[in-house]
Amino acid sequence: MAAGVSVASSSSVRESSPDGPLLFRDRIAMPTLGPSTHDHPLANGIPPNWAAAWGDDDYGPWAEIHIGDAKQNLRWINPGTFLMGAPESEWKPHGFDREGPQHPVTISRGFWLFETPCTQALWEAVMGEAPSHFKGADLPVESVSWLDCQLFIEALDSQLPDLHLSLPTEAEWEYACRAETETSTYAGDLVIDSNHHAAGLEQIAWYGANAGRKTHSVAELQPNDWGLYDMLGNVWEWCRDCSRRPYSSAAITDPMYEKGGASASRVFRGGGWGDPARHVRAAYRDRLPPGHRVHLVGFRCSSSGE
């Protein structure tokens, strides 16, 4: 757990600072949550056809793809059920009602997920171009639209046909980001000060208080418990869904919101290098038109290729 970030463990907890109370988290009755005991694709000792390297470590199974000199690790995410969204006490102080109500979501199939945001090295190896505002092989690619990401996926799948890439759904993204946590970040709940900073957040996320108005090399800060880096901060990440699915308290399985068609805005998640702490949370949601490019937004891919 990151130092300076407090974690709620009772039915409710009030967190305060010298500037006054900042966050009051309510706990609700929980369904059976967490990943299933489903065997992962490496359990039989046979790696996926697309994997150039593979293994199992303290975080779980991983596999690696190579495109030219560029390498990208993927982590296996087991299926399971989690509580999506934020409690009213988390979103209400900021007016972000689109984050509630919390509701149980089941991810019925496991999937692979890029361990980091897509790097500029991988993008350039696949696409032969360098679109990013900030330059560096290990920096996350940015200034790419949701539509650009579809072209990247198509191009990479053509080189590794069994990989079956896509952007993660919004539910898959939050499930992977939380990694079995229920707090506002995977390091604990945020206590936000009067300067919009949060003690301890800098250990897991590049955001407005510590990024220096630029992106940083991926995987420099602490990962979550499933071995995923930069799920919060550095760059926002495009998701597959259209707009923002209206939440209800009902349980749901594998949600993917498609209302609005091809021209509909698309969801992005995670906060970025220029954002205040209140945006750098597992439940925070935003959207942009699919053709929009901005040097705050990148992506990571999921894969159904077992």
Explain what the structure shows:
The protein is globular. A hairpin with a 2-residue loop joins β4 and β5 (60-67). It has helices at residues 88-91, 120-127, 146-159, 170-178; strands spanning 12-17, 20-26, 34-35, 53-57, 60-67, 70-77, 80-84, 103-107, 111-114, 165-166, 236-242, 252-253, 266-269, 285-288, 297-298, 302-303. Residues 1-30 have low confidence and may be disordered. The chain is an alpha+beta fold and 306 residues long. The strands form 4 sheets. A 6-stranded antiparallel β-sheet has the order 4-5-6-9-16-10. It has a 4-stranded mixed β-sheet with strand order 3-7-8-12, with helices on one face. Strands 14-13-11-15 form a 4-stranded mixed β-sheet. The two termini are 32 Å apart.
Instruction: Give the SSE order as H and E letters.
Output: EEEEEEEHEEHHEHEEEEEE
Number of strands: 16
Structural class: alpha+beta
Helical proportion? 10-25%
**Assembly state (oligomeric):** single chain
Strand order of the largest sheet: 4-5-6-9-16-10
